[in-house]
Amino acid sequence: MGKNNSGGYGGSNLGGHTTDHGNGKSTSSDNRGDISHHTDSGGSKGDHGWGRGGDGSGGSSSSRGDAPENASRVNMAHAGIPVALYPVSGVLTVSLNWPTITAAVREAFIGLDTYLGNSLARTAPYAGRLLGVVVGSLLPGQIAPDPKFSYNLKDPLVDKDNPYSVTALPAELVTSVPVADIPKNTTVPARVLAQAVIDELAQTRPVTITPVKSTLVPVVKAQKTNKHNVYTAQVVPGMKPVRIHVSSYPDKSQVMPNSTPAVKQYLSHPDEGRSHHAILDFGRDHAPVYVSVTKQLKPEEEKKLAEKARKEWVADNSVGVIKVLADINTLIISTEKQMSAKQQELRNKQAELQDLSKELMVKNARDKKKREINTVINQLTADLSNIQKDLADAAENKILNEKNAGRTEKAGAKSG
C-alpha cells in the first residue's frame, strides 16, 4: 500500500496529496491531474520516461515511441481533462493523440457548444459573471485518467515550483471558423474557452469551459522539429515555445464525454495569471487543435485571488450585486417558508405521537388492571379448589370415623 501525504507537487501544497510507492517513486494528485515522481539520487534515467533536456536533447526516448522526453500526455480520448506538467529547462512538453479519436467522440465534444449555449439562454449569469463547466466533469467518473510521464524532482532542470496545466479541445468546439480556413487567419473568434476562473465560495481557481463573446484566439503555426511528429509553438508569452508531440497511437479507452455536465456561475479571473490560449496549426500534417495553458497556484494564493476577484466584482457591478442580494433575499424567504412548513409538520407529528402515547398509557393501564384481576381470580379459584378439597377430605374422614365408631359399639356388646 502506498503512503498518502497531504500536500502537492514537489512539496508545494496544491490542495492534493502525494502517494509514496516506495523505491523512490511517488505520485502527486489533485483536481488538476497526476504526476509521477522519481527521487532517486542518481542522474537522469530514460527508462522512466524522462530525460534531462526539456528541449528534447539528452536522455533516452520515451515509452511512447517518438514522444519527447518529459512529456505529459494529453489524452484526447478524454478531451477536456487538464493535465499537470512542469517546465524542464524552461520548456513545457505535451503529447496529443487527437488524430486517433473516433468521429463519434469528436462530434460529442463539438456538441457541447450547443449545450452550453442552451444553458446560457436558460440561466443568464449575473452581471460581471460567467457560466462555466469544470473541464474534469466532461469525463465519466468511472474512467481513470491515464498515467502521466515521470519527472525526477531532484533534477535541477525540472522547475518543480512552477507547475502548469494544459487542456486540449477540438478546434471545432472553440471556434465557428471552418477547420480548413483556420490556417488562413492569425486569429479566430472563440465561442468557448478553457480558462481559469474564480469560485468565490470554494475560494479556488478551477479551469472551466466557458462560453465567451468577442474573444479572439491566436492561430499559432506549429513548427516542425527534426523529430517525427514533434513540433514547437509559442503559446505562453515570456516562455520558451511549448513542445508538442502528436501521437499516432490509437487509444483503446475512448469514452463518450458527459453531454450534460453541471453548469455553474463563476467570477472572471483578475488580469494576472490568466490562462493562455492558442489554436495550433499543423499545416497539412494534422487537424488544428486548441490548447489552453494555465499556471497553477498554491491554495493560499488562490484564496487571495478569490478575495480580490470578489472585491473587484462588488466594486464594478452594482447592478449584479443588487441582483445577487435580491436573489439571496428571495432564497431566504423561500427557505423560511419551507422551514415554517417543516416546523408545522413537526408539531403535527409531535401531537400525533402524544395522542398515541396517551392511548398506549390507557391501554397499558387497562392491561395492568386486567392482569391484576386475573391474578385475584386465579388466586380465588385456587383457594376455592383447596377449600373443596378440604371439605371432601373432611367428609371422607367423618364417614370413616362413623364406621369406626359402629365397629367399636358392636365389639363392646359382644364382650358384655
UniProtKB/TrEMBL annotation:
Biased composition (Basic and acidic residues): 31-50
Classification of source organism: Bacteria, Pseudomonadati, Pseudomonadota, Gammaproteobacteria, Enterobacterales
Protein name per the record: Pyosin/cloacin translocation domain-containing protein
Chain intervals for the UniProt region annotation (Disordered): 1-70
Biased composition (Gly residues): 1-14
Keywords: Antibiotic, Antimicrobial, Bacteriocin, Coiled coil
Domain annotation Pyosin/cloacin translocation: ranges: 42-311
One biological process term in Gene Ontology: killing of cells of another organism
Coiled coil: 332-397
Pfam entry (one): Cloacin
InterPro entries: Pyosin/cloacin_T_dom, Pyosin/cloacin_T_dom_sf
